[in-house]
Amino acid sequence: MQESHVELKRSLGLWSALAIVIGTVIGSGIFFKQASVLQMTGSTNLAMLAWLLGGLITLADGLTLSEIGSQIPHTGGLYQYMTHIYGEFWGFMSGWMQVIVYAPAIVGSIAGYLGLLVTNFFGLGSVWKAPIAIGTIILIAMLNMLENRYGAAFAIVTTICKLLPIAAIVIFGLFFGREAGFGETVTSIHQSVGNFGVAVLGTIFAYDGWILVTNLGGEIKRPEKLLPLAIILGITIVIVLYLGVIFGIFRSLSAAKINELGQNATAYFALNAFGAFGGRLVNIGIMISIIGALNGKMMSFPRIYYAMAAKRHLPFAKQISSLNRHTQTPVVATTILLALTSLMILTVDTDRLSELCIFAMYSFYIAAFVGVFILRHRNGGKPAGFSTPGYPVVPIIAIIGTSFVVISELFFDFVGAATSLVIIGLGIPLYYWLKRHYKNDDSIDVM
């Protein structure tokens, strides 16, 4: 059998998809953002409300996109949705932004943070940060070059492992917390705070990543049913876990102490709650949590490269769209992501680069959510698959919530928003060159 005829293996069940949703979302954000959200809201009660609202907006996003995913259950997620709803040009633009900057930058940013945690944990010099980051993504990339069941199994294992420190924080706060936790106001914390909207914005970013499971639509069994279920259950579970962590921290540390410690609040809590050994175990759990998030991204992002190449939307399309005949995975696409990520880690500020993509990515999210109305119109006013509960209110909430992110980016990082538009613009001449270059070359249908 020729490599060009090899297809992705549709072998991922609900547990695998669910683990990818949870594991990709829960990285480091929930463990280190308590102080920043608390400072911006001005009270512990409002901080908890900000986390809840951010979760509900994310759930509205997931419910809305689930309707689209059930109708277009193909590999490539957002790229496929934009192509199907708005045409090849806008599909290409959404995919181009992801493959050229967003995917390698976000993987590099998370890997870099893991490298920092590992060097601090073992008392290594900062010179080891980049080698540890790159070494980790190499190992994870190699794992995801095997059959997809191995990456899925690793996602399940790391998700279970990351639940342990979360459970420890929740249980300790529930049964052994001695602080008032709720009701502390801004006057006892900080002098100039109170931007509730910015706090909600920060929590929305902490919930981001769930959409990546849609990139695996061609490998999930019965995706028209299991994909919406995995998204909705996954986001709901993450909301509960996030609120549980916030509750545990607020019950265990005073608001003033959390504000003083900043990003070190969770580490301080672990040390005081469980002793030196227990604290180190919790910190190991956090590092495993980040590794799990990296695995989800290294598993899902290469599918965008593969799907775009299959439609002849990337140079070297035949090579990138090839699948290994033994593992049925996009090895070349995974290698490209690995190479771009490693290069970025060594040469640029991946944190800043990933921030530059926020405006563009969330703009495409808005377009996708609006697409629910377009698809219903095409289908005579009825959903063709999964039906978003609370339609049309829930999609409108998703659009408004995501628009809030886009508008906020314009206000708080106009240069970044403009830069992301420039990056998208650079893809326009490439799109038309590819159309001419591959005009006599048939694209490959992908699941």
From TrEMBL:
Location within or outside the cell: Membrane
Major localisation: membrane
Parts of the chain that traverse the membrane: 12-32, 44-65, 99-122, 128-146, 153-176, 196-214, 226-250, 270-294, 329-347, 353-376, 388-408, 414-434
Membrane topology category: Multi-pass membrane protein
Record keywords: Membrane, Transmembrane, Transmembrane helix
UniProt superkingdom: Bacteria
Keyword Transmembrane helix: yes
CC terms in the record's Gene Ontology section: membrane
InterPro entries for this protein: AA/rel_permease1, AminoAcid_Transporter
Example GO molecular function: L-amino acid transmembrane transporter activity
Protein name, per record: Amino acid transporter
The species this protein was found in: Furfurilactobacillus rossiae DSM 15814
